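User: My instructor asked us to take a sequence, write out its structure as tokens, and then describe one feature of it. I'm not sure where to start. Here is the sequence I was given:
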Amino acid sequence: MKTKTALLTELWIEGRTRFSNQIDALSESDLRKTLSPSPNSIGFLMRHMGDVELLFAKNVFGDSQIKVSAKTIIAGKDTGEWTDLEVLKNYVEESYKALHSIVEKQRDEDWEDEISTKEFGTKTKAEAFGRIVTHTAYHAGQMALIQKYGTNQK
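Assistant: Let's start with the prediction itself. The structure tokens for your sequence are:
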């Protein structure tokens, strides 16, 4: 029988494929695409998902070794700077590894611990983890639509 941690990790990894499966098909010019009237580009969304994964590793799961400057959250909008595909690929790979590493260290009873953040209040770790799963899937859907129907920013 699998542990809660193993099951939740599998759920997250499978959900994240909605994002990760898109990455190899992207070109550098795709990063500038937006779907009007939304200002968010594919490059911005990639960086944002990496930022949030790192914030979860640090603030939800308590990885004190994580150093993150969540530039997409700080700026609050797409600044047009997320245009280097290799840099973004590396960033989201690092964010994945960081979150995966700390999640795998959770004991079954840890999932019931409550954490509080200003973004979503008090939740159990399991509930909070649901937020990262759905956050990634939500933005992966946006990326897919932008990729299919979007145009490049000027």
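For the description part of your assignment, you could build on this observation: The longest strand covers residues 114-117. Try explaining in your own words what that tells you about the chain.
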